[in-house]
Predict the structure.
Amino acid sequence: MIEIVLTVNGIQQKLAVSPEERLLDVLRDRLGLVGTKEGCGSGDCGACTVLMDGRPVTSCMVLAAAADGADILTIEGLEKNGELHPLQKAFIEEGAVQCGFCTPGMILSSLALLQENPDPDDEAIKRAIAGNLCRCTGYARIFAAIKTAAERMRSDA
Amino acid sequence: MRDKKDLKVVGTSLPRVDGVQKVRGRAVYAPDFELPRMLFAKVLWSDRAHAKIVRLDASKALKAPGVAAVVSAVDAPQNRYGVYLKDQLIFASGKVRHIGEPVAAVAAESEQAAEEALKLIEVEYDDLPTVFDPFEAQNDSAPIIHPDLETYEATYSKVAYDNVALYTHLSVGDTEKGFTEADHIFEDEYKTQAMYQGYVEPRACVVGFDQRDKLTVWTSNQQIAECHAEMAAALDIPMTEVRVVGTALGGGFGGKLKTHVEPIAALLAKKSGRPVKIVLTREEDMIASRARPPYTIRLKTGVTKDGRITARETELVADCGGYSDHVIGTMGLAVTFAQGAYKIPNCDVKGYVIYTNNPNYSCMRGYGAHQIDFANESQMDMIASRMGWDPVEFRRKNLIEDGDVLVSTQPITEVTISQTMDEALRRSEWNKKGKRKKERKENVYYGIGIGNTIINMGLLSSSAMIKFNGDGTASILTSVMDLGTGNHTALIQIAAEELGMLAEQINIAEIDSDTSPYDLGQIASRTIFDAGNAVRLAAKNAREKLYESAAELLQVPEDDLDSEGGIIFSRSDRSKEIPIAGVNGYRLWVKGGPVVGSAGWLGKPGFAEIPGEGYPQPPSKTFIFGTHIAEVEVDIETGRVTVLKVTAVHDVGQAVNPLGVQGQIEGGVVQGVGYALMEELQVKDGVIQNPDFLNYRMPTTLDIPEIDPVILEIPSEYGPFGAKGLGEPVMMGVVPAIANAIENATGVRVTEVPITAERYLQAMKKKE
């Protein structure tokens, strides 16, 4: 077992993990943060996307041991004092959520984009979430949600 | 019925009721569900396409660390079950018929322990001759895949023999006469692929025991009531001894019907006495999938020189793989729409569902209507182009009308195809764009194409109950799930409209076979229409009870009452009003008793009305129509097709939640683009070659066209507040529209989907 220390949604976690354990397993099975979904286990669908030190990673492709010392943000860490993040609100309002299984990963990829580029154009949005598969929406409403959230985040900033 | 202008809740884009839990990551899907002392199970899938099981020894696996139970055919009841033809068992018994068939399963303390133990199960196979081509499977020399086929029961009047799981034959008019009236006869063949549903949540379930020790299934499934029935059938127990509860559902598209791994988990739970969880890996989900079956469709169509269709003969062959599953039903629907959206007075159609040793196919969004639509709509354009006719005018001359008779002899009603077509032509600026210069840049050609769709609306039965709480709020009970489409929100809107309440005053109870009344399931575009009718009728039943008491309390006649926002009032004297909570209290404590509204709904009964052999589909209540127009660019050097824009017009009768309808259209169009250009389960010698999301390519944000989703509202006499469904047609017409646009761009016709660059270049070469 390997001793690691992670900060997950602002809370420090000390864990002993096995060499083959994935960051996704730690989040879901050890910490009960099941908002992070597993869709493929091979980094192709993006459902398990979380932010690691601010960058989006597919947590099924990151070994827990390799995340030692990292700061992790999952969907559960997005709301502040019970208030939904502008992206979460916009996803509901714009109809960007259908089955919802891709939604946590999709929102975190979107957040990574908006933190780097507060005013993304269509092309930037498409590229930022190109690794997140959604089988329900056809993506159009997701683009709308990201734009709406970006606009609100800019005016709040 | 309330006039459209009076609608208060129906027709508004309310946010979905499960939106907040989903964006917070708190919705519990089947893979997220846990119980104390839960075991994890792994399934041993057959790696042989056709083989006798000579020996199966699980003794070593049973002794492996952490293993609690191992099950195989010896632990399962030997009564066959199935949707249409009862050819299925929980585990392969005696022999395996396809790769990916369940052979045994292990439950252990951890997933890893279960995986390790699986390797210790010894299975000795004796390979049997195989057949992978549905045409070769009909030869005398082909191995027989189900030697006991004759003894299998069916839920319809079965015609099955050799490797033919279904033969169906329908006919209307006199095709011989029809062809003699024709000036030109066209014969063409089309092929559609095995397509994977591609939901992002893999199949999963937990089977354990509830607070009263009852065997209970928590599953992500589109058909909770039917899953319940099939659990009992598969386990050979009364339906009272098993309970099925729906979790949040991460997409389905026809892939999560009836049962899949649920009976396996149940056998393990019973044997170990502990809860058991199965979550398939993506690879397992694809290998053990029940994908859309591949079809080969031959059309022979006669037309007069002035462009009227006089006759058609259609032959469809579907490969169902090792077991028939829903493929039989897809064929029933495909033959129903042999004429497409056109008036063809003389039509004869034969459908064959063939057993092979390919994976177990089943169905996907569009069922069989999708495959026949691709063939019909492609041939409409091919005939027009060979005759030098305008494809729109040729369609217009032959459009089906109210009262025309389908090949199933069912008269067609509520036809709105000319409206959807006109609107699609107008919105897409067809006339202007049709004249656009074909070559845009070097080697890249522009084209535009059209595809119409017709499909059934209203399938079998639904029921609902509405109960009231002390504070005047209400709960809907029904078995229909929400696989993501937003139909729970829409059903609440329908109930709120009927009761004169606010949507936020109503919720939908957890779907639980112990308490939720029957509903066929979230399939066949039927939810808004069938479950919607049941919910509306249940709400009406409750409203009548509320009004009876309100009339007493307000001292006004019942027919003077109306309600809005949860307040019942006198129309003639607005000062007389009472909240529903007050009426409910009166009923609860003084007179009348608690209000429970209930209703059952059966759209169109039975199978008996349809003459013809082996026809497995019930008739539908009404029909839905839509038109897609696709604009493409084709690079004739690389064969790459880019879809620029899709205009998608659908008549939904009445949009209950317009934002939800828009989401259905956009999502459907993108799945249609995947069907047309990208997606195919590549199966070689019974082995799926691309069982992962890297090699089975579904559309990402980089593959999608601009979409213009257009909602037409021509109210249906039969739907709740005029509403019809739209879940399936939204992905149908786009496929032939793309194929037609490609020919319009370059003159090259591809009759097999997906139209990959390779297939395009082959067709181009053939043409030269």
Observations:
- Chain A has a mean pLDDT of 97.
